[in-house]
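Notes from hallway chat w/ T.B., transcribed later so I don't forget. T.B. wanted the structure written out for a chain they're using in a teaching module, and asked if we could keep both sequence and structure tokens in one place. Agreed to drop them here.
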Amino acid sequence: MKSKRYWAASTALALLAPACLATTAHAAEAAPDAAADAADGSGLGEILVTAQKRPENLQETPISISVMRSDDLTNRHVTSLVDLGDGAIPSLKVAPFYSRNSALIVNIRGIGVLSDGNQPARDQGVGVYIDGVYLGRAQGLGTALFDIENIEVLKGPQGTLFGRNTEGGAVNIVTKKPSGEFHVNATGGLGNFGTYKGEVHVDLPTIANVALKINGVVAHRDPLVKNPLAGADGFNQYDKQGLHVEALWKPAPNFSADYSFDISKDESTSLYLNLVGAGTNKQAALGTVQPDRVRTANVGVPQQPSVGKVHGHRLTLEWDAMPDLTIKSISSYRKLEQSQWDNGSASTTMSNTTGNFTNVQFARYSLAMFGQNQWSQEVQAIGDTGRVKYVAGALYYREHVSDNAQAFYTNQFTNAAGSAYVLRQIDYGAQAIDRASHVTTRSIGAFGQATWTPALMNDAIHLTGGLRWTKDMKHGALTIVNNALPINRNGVAGEIDLDASWSRVDPMVNLAVDLSRDVHVYGKWSTGYKSGGANSRSQNYDAFNPETVSIFEIGAKTEFFDNHARFNIAAYAGSYKDIQVDFQRPYETGGVRTTRTTTSTINAPGTGGIHGIEAELTVNPVNGLTLGASYAYQYVNIPATVNPYPNAAGVISTLAVPIYQTYTPRHSASGTVDYELPFDGFTVRAHLDGNFDSGFYANVTDPVYTAPDAAGNVYQPKGDKAFIVNGRLSVADIAVGTGDAKVSFAVWARNLFNEQHLFYKALSPTSGLNGFFNEPRTFGGEMNIRF
């Protein structure tokens, strides 16, 4: 099998084959932007961002923004968005949803996802955009990067310019455009755990006013945890492939048409869940406690990759209708298919109260099929009347989403001690469907924002106001609950419809003052919201309303030491309302409550709060050396909430339960060192980064039906503190031949010191404490050639 894989890698490199969306970000070994500026003695270079729908200097944009440029992604060996979960941007938390790298959780400032946001009629609270196109689903985000120019992380509500589902902020990904000149940039590499990758970027010369660019990559990694079952896949492995083609047509100086097509396939397996500490139940002999990372699972289970297939089209038209007015149209269609095959929790299902395991089933295989297609159309008018810069526009978005899920046990013990087992004979296609639903979402919106610079104080004052109106409509149905038609509150069996709509106005006001050429301060108030919806894990499919955030923010952006140092800081505080909180409730059939549960969502009463501080420092003390540091303190308070649903005995609790904000470390920080040393005929580049977070909750505290305290509550533990170090060393820009071809060699490592921590923890009094460990040290080498 391994020989076939390495043959595939070499063939891909030889043919410059298609590639996966996820790893092209670090293809180029061209001189990193910041390091190049530092090396030539000019100080820190200008960073352009498009946070306000037009190219602007980061330092003069009165918004809290962090930017990851192409060289940053290269240095950190980022292969997908999930790799940013190590804390590269402290206010941004990216993590797999439970054990699934195929579905990501993205939070900014602690706002985004509280519970399961990967359902058809639920949304995340951070918008992810690629070249102006909103990606509606968390599934597929692990394969969404092609030859990146910038990743802009816009912090705080972005409801005015970006709209719905940006209450926490937005991740704005900008790719490199066709250059119109012939260039080839190809990279190949190998690493531990059987890792290999091959990627290529080809720019073709302009023909008939059309510039064409082709990006492709393949990437593979063997499992981090081996599966003892012969023929079954291991845990946390991946195979990724993809292709991206972009054509830029400029028939006239004032008009362009940019068409992009991408297609990708991502096959990845689930993470392995360790039983870290036993509960009150008695453990099977094979159900060993594993307090540290393991290389091989304690039992073999059926496991196959979850497969995600994504393709999409984008057409962006730009017309400079007048010298100070640009009309822009962004049309997009995308389709996503994602399967889920998750059997990573076997070690946590091998216990019971009796200690007799004869014929006891274990290893719960969680299967789900998810499909989505979306179409969007946005029109923008971007203008400048001298003292007023403005942008206005409208958006239409439609998506159709469907899913189903089933779960069953694949293994069975054959003796009382639980030391021997067999695989159950299962017809996967005949297994019961536990839940299924579908929904069509339509959203329309209109927005406008203007910045006025009055003739005061040498044009140092800038007042911005913005407003967006949005209407969301969701129509769908819950079709199956626990392998049966749903039963509504009237006791009638049948599909339960969702027919709900909401309208919303989001304002923004921003006052910015240029205290000097290098010191800019601002104060901003903005709002945002996450759309309402329904929970497909529920029985009654009740609609819940949008949740909202309102934030006041003050900030300063400064440069000093003759453009050799840059310090940006922001502080914010605000309110968090109508928070979408999940609670367990018993499944009812025939008017009788059972011990089987479903999950329903309510809007928590009361008003929560959010506040924090963000700071970033970049210093170029001497030529070739760039130092960076960033820190974020973020606190989210959610009001204690009463579970409104009865337990299996029909009792409704009156006790308000504490709710923890998930995937939100209170303290997080990152530091970087970049050094570039030119020699005659080559350049040595070195990078080191360290990333800290104080740990976060992965589960909302939730009443359960059997628990240690009288109120029936299990208070979930927080994940461990973490400190991850990554590094890269390259010998770059070695001239090859007489032309402009250059070759580079590099070695890299992620989690250089093999630090170990549980980023996810969950506690059950009976079955014990379980969790997911971070990835072990990975390392490798690669070669890049470009001409």
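Follow-up for T.B.: The chain has one domain: 2-786. Might be a good example for the class.
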